[in-house]
Amino acid sequence: MTVFLKKILHTNWSLILAGGVPCLILFLIYLAQGVFPFGDSSLLTVDLGQQYVDFYTYYRNTLLGDPTSFFYSFSKAIGGDMLGLWAYYLTSPFNLILLLFPARLITLGITVLTLTKISLAGLSFGILLKKAFNGKGFYLATFSTSYALMGYTIVNQLNIMWLDGLIFLPLVILGIEKLVFEKRGLFYTVFLALLLIANYYIAYMICLFSILYFIFRLTAIQFPSKTTVKEKVIFLSKQLARFSWHSLLGGGLASILLVPTFHALLDSKASYSDFSFEWKFAFPIQEMISKLYIGAFNFDQMPDGYPNLFIGSLALICFISFLFSRAFPIRERLMAFLIVLFLVVSMDLKAFNIVWHGFQYPIWYPYRFSFVLCFFMILNGYRAFIKLERLSIPGMLLVVVSTTAAAFYMLKHPFDFVYHEQIILTSLFIAIVTFLLIVKPKYTLWLPFLLFLVSAVEMGINAQLDLSRLSYVSNSEFLEYRREFAPVIDHIKEKDDGFYRVEKTFLRSKNDSFQFDYPSVTHFSSTFEKEVPTLFGHLGFPVGNGFIAYSNATLATDALFGIKYYVAENNGLYEKSQDDLVDPATGQTPLAKNKLTELTQKNNPTNLTQLQLTIMATKPDLRSYTKLTNTDRMTTFKNQNALSIAYGVDKDILKVKELTNQPVQLQETILKALSPNEKKRYFTPIAFNSTVYQNITPNNQYPNPTFFKQIANNKASVDFQFTPQTNDAYYLTLGPSVKEEDAAFYLNGKKLSQYKTYRDTLILNIANQQKGQTITITVELKKESLWLEQFQLYHFDTTAFEKVVTNLKQNELNIEKFGNTYFKGTATITDENKILMTTIPYSKGWRISIDGKKVPTTKVLNSLLAAPIAKGTHNIEISYQTPYFKIGLFISFISLILLVLTNWLFHRGKRHKHF
C-alpha cells in the first residue's frame, strides 16, 4: 500500500498541488478572517445567506427525511414545483458533502463545500493540461492555481452552485480535445451531461463557448500538403457531425432534468422579463482594463459592475505572448484573437450579453459568463508558456508599454474599487513575472518553483482583498436564530399534525420555511412561478421578481390562505403585558409557557439578547388571534379562522379579475364572490378625524395628497388621527411611489415596521381591538416634498367577514391524508353551482379526482387551482406529477441506448478501420 501511494504521489504530485494549493490558500484566508470554526464569521453573505443556506438545509431534509419534497414543496410560497429549483441550485453531486454535517453546522458544511469545489476546479484544469497538453510539474500547478483562484471564482464563491461549471468546463474541453484529435466522443458526452445536470444555467454558457472552442481547435488541425479542398470539407463535415451528435447525446442524457426544468422556466425565471435586443454598449470598452488589477472588486460591483477578468500576471502576459508566438499557426492565433474579441464585445454589447444569459438580463452578478474568457486566456497562456524559451526584447517592451499605459489610464480615470496601492502592486507583480520570463533559459531548475510561488502569492492577495470587501453573517447570529425559532416551530408541529401554513412578523431570510421545514407564503428564488407573486402583489403585499414577503396581511388573506399560526417577535408586539397569555374562552393558558421556554433555554444556554430580528410587519390583527405560547423572544398565535387547503365556493369566483394597485378593492371583490348572497360591504373607506401639519404646505387632494416643506432642511411631518368606533380591524393603503428614502412612518409614536422593497400598493394594518383609543399615524418627510399615493384609511367589518368564514368552513376539505404531492379527504358541498377552490398554485401537474373520477381543472384569480364540484358529500383526491418528467426520463433512456450503440460502433469501426 505504501509503495502504491508513493507511486501515486510521484506521478501525480503536480495534480495534487493543482487542487491542494488553491484549497490551502483559501483555507488560510478563512483562518485569518475568523471563519467558523476558527472564529465567529461565516461565508454567508448576500444570496448565500438569504437563499442558498436555507435550500441546503431543505436539501438535507429531502434526502434524509422526505424524498417527495424533491418534486413539490409547500415551503416554496403557497406551494411550488421543486424540480426547477433543484436544477438551478441543488443538483450538484458535490452537495452530498452537506449530508456529513448536522443542520446546526450547515455553515461549516458550506465552508467545506466551497473549499472542495474550488480545489476540484484547480484539479480539473490540471487534468486538462496533463492529458491534452502534456502538462506537468510546477508549471501545471501554477496555471491551475491561476484558474482556480481567478477573480471570477473568488467574487462568485458565494454563488456556490456556479462553481460546478468551473469544475466541469476543463473536462468538457478535454472531451472536445479527444473528439477532435482522437475521434472519441464518450468522454465529452458524459461530462457534458454531468455539467448540464449539475447546473444547467452555467452549462448553457459553457455550451455556447464549447462551440467557439470546437471551431478554434479545428484551426489547429494540420492537413497533409496534398489534401484537396473537397477532402478537407468532408473531413471537417465529419468533425462537425461528430461534435453535434455527441452534444445532442449529452443533452439527451440530461433530459430527465432538463425537459421538466425547461417547462418550469417558462412559468418562472423566463417569464419575468420581456426579451428584446439592445444594440447599445453598456460602458466604454476600455474600462474593462480596471478588472485586470489585483483586488478590483467591491460590493457595488455585484449589482451592477464590470466583468471579473483577473487571472494573474503570468497568465495574462503569456496569453498576449500566445497571440504573437510563431510556434502556433497564424490561423490559430487569429481565431484566438477573434474569439477573445467576440467575448469582450459580448460583455459590453447588450444584445450579445443577453444571449449569453439565456435571453434574460441578470439581476445582480452581471457578466456571469466572463469565466469562459478567463479560462481561454489561461489555457492558451499555458500553451504559449510551454513553448516560450524566453521573453523576447519586443515582448518585454510590449509588456512595459502596456503596463505603463494601463497604469496611467487608471490614474487618470480612477475607479472606486481600485486604489493606487493596487495599481502599484499589480505593476510590481507584472515586473517580477516579466523578469523571470526573461531569465527563463538560465535558471531552469529553480524557476518553475519561483514562478509557482509568485503566482500563488499574487492570487492569494487578490482573493484576500476581494473577500475582505464583503460583510458576512456571524455564525453565532445564525445559530442563535436557529436555536430560538426551531423549538417554536417544533412545538407547533408537535401539537398540530394537520396541514396549515405558518407566518411570522419577522424574518432572517425569506426562505426560513425551508430552513425550518414548514408551509408558508414568504419566499425568494430565481425559479419562483410568476403568477404567485403577481397575485400577492395585487392583494397588497411586497413582491418582486422571484419573491413574496407576507408582511401586509389582512384578516381576510390570513383566513383564505390558511395561515393558522403566527409567530411574532415580542419587541414588535402591540404594547400589552407579556403575561397576557390567557385564552379568553377558557381563562386558561392553552399551552405551557414554561415548557417551551425551558426547551429553548435547553437548546440555547447562551444569552440571546444580542440576536437582532428584522421586524417585517406591524400587525395589530394579532389581537384577534389566540395566544398560545411564548419564549423570551417570540410569541405564537393561532388563527381560528384559517381555512383548509380547499373549499367549495360560488362560481362567481371565476369572474373575478385581478386589479392592479387596488388591493382593497380586489379583496372586497373576492369576498363578495365567495358570498354572493351577502350584500354588506367588508372594506369601507373612512376619513381621519384630524390632520396636524408641522412645517408643511398640503394640497389636500386625498387620497393622493402632496406635501411640501415650508422651510427647507427643517423637520416636517403630518399627524393623521382617528378614533376607532368598533373593535374591528383598520387598514391603510399606501401606493408604490412612497419609498423608505422618501418618508418615515410612525404608529402612535413607534416606528411602523414595513418590508422595504415593494412595487404594488400596500395594505398596512393600523388598528384592531382598539375601540375608543386615539390612533395617530405620523408621516415624517425626508425630502422637500412627498406624494402620498393612495393614502386611504379603511374599516373592515369583522362580523360580516366571519359569516363568510363560517360558510366556507362548512364547505371546506376535511383532510384525512396529505403529503407534498397529494391531499385526500372529504368535503360536503351545501349548494349547487360550486367550485372547489384551492390555495395551491395552478399547474398542469395537479390533478383533482372527485369520487374516483378525474375532473377538469381551471384557474381562479389567474393563479390558483380549482375544479367544478356538485352538491353533496364527496371523496376528494388532489395529486401532483411533475409535468414532462416522464418524457424527459424516456429521452434520457433512449439517449443512453444510443450512446452505448455509438460507442460500440466506434470500437467496432476502429477494429475494421472504417468508422
Automatic annotation (TrEMBL):
This protein's UniProt keywords: Membrane, Transmembrane, Transmembrane helix
InterPro entries linked to this entry: Uncharacterised_YfhO
Domain of life of the organism in this record?
A: Bacteria
Instruction: List the protein's name.
Output: Bacterial membrane protein YfhO
Provide the transmembrane region boundaries: 12-32, 70-89, 96-118, 138-155, 162-181, 187-216, 245-266, 306-324, 336-356, 362-379, 391-411, 417-438, 445-465, 884-906
